[in-house]
Amino acid sequence: MKYPVTLDALEVLDAIARKGSFAAAAADLFKVPSAVSYTVQKLEQDLEIVLFRKQGRKSVLTEAGKVMLEQGRELLEASQRLAVAAKKTHHGWEPVLNIAIDSILSFDFIYPVLAQFYEIHPDIEINLFEEVLGGAHESIRVGRADLVVGAGLDPVLGAGLRYQVLREIEWIFAVAPEHPLTREPLPLTTAAIEQYRFIAGKDTSRNQAPQSRRMLSKRPALGVPSITEKVRAQSLGLGVGFLPAHRIQHELEQGLLIALPVAGVQTLETIHMAWKTGNKGKVLHWFIEQLGKLHF
Hints:
The chain is α/β, with parallel strands linked by helices and about 300 residues long. About 40% of the residues lie in helices and about 20% in strands. It has 10 helices and 11 strands. The protein has helices at about 5-20, 20-30, 35-45, 65-90, 110-120, 135-140, 190-195, 225-235, 250-255, 280-290, and strands spanning about 50-55, 60, 95-100, 125-130, 145-150, 160-175, 200, 220-225, 240-245, 260, 270-275. It is elongated.
């Protein structure tokens, strides 16, 4: 199939629009004026449209020309990105990296690392997204993510995955200040807690049964999409539940949440960074190295 709109033609169109004349565009592109004129005439002939009209000494785009230029510039930019991506891939720098961050962590830690990365490789696409509970491990196993940060509980080893410990998380049972549980004897018992609604972060797994953690209630839960919303809902008194200690320091200090000890509940959990052992991409391993230096 023959395509009359070539990248060369789009570059000519862009140069004429920027410089205001065929002669100036020719000089900008290091072409002779006749070559620029021929390119425009050929494009107009093939498409059966008029791209430029004369306005004094300047060449001005017609409405059809404006459409061609606007979308043509997008194609030119895309072709440049394609060339950069192909070159980087040839040298082992993958053009796209997908990073899943478990909802246990806020995204604050990643932005300074991204800023540092973009100073070196501004043309590589990085995608960040949040996973909850089993969704974190699933994202790396099925390939939604190249790297997962903050995956909790004991990982299933021996599945072609590499895990690196990040830190230990303390889970705190927290309620709003006026909640009836604040008037119960401490430590709280399961019998006392199970009468009240729990707030639950909804598992983002797509290919496996959803999981739940530390759910001690007999009542239907209020499901929310993230730890951030779980903190907010519990602060408003909509329910109770366990929250990562490092995510609620402000709420505890301001009296928006009250921490209550619970008898017989494991409150410590180790979180990990995980990736596929077969992934040798330089972008992935740059992030692994930099994130490994952080104190989460």
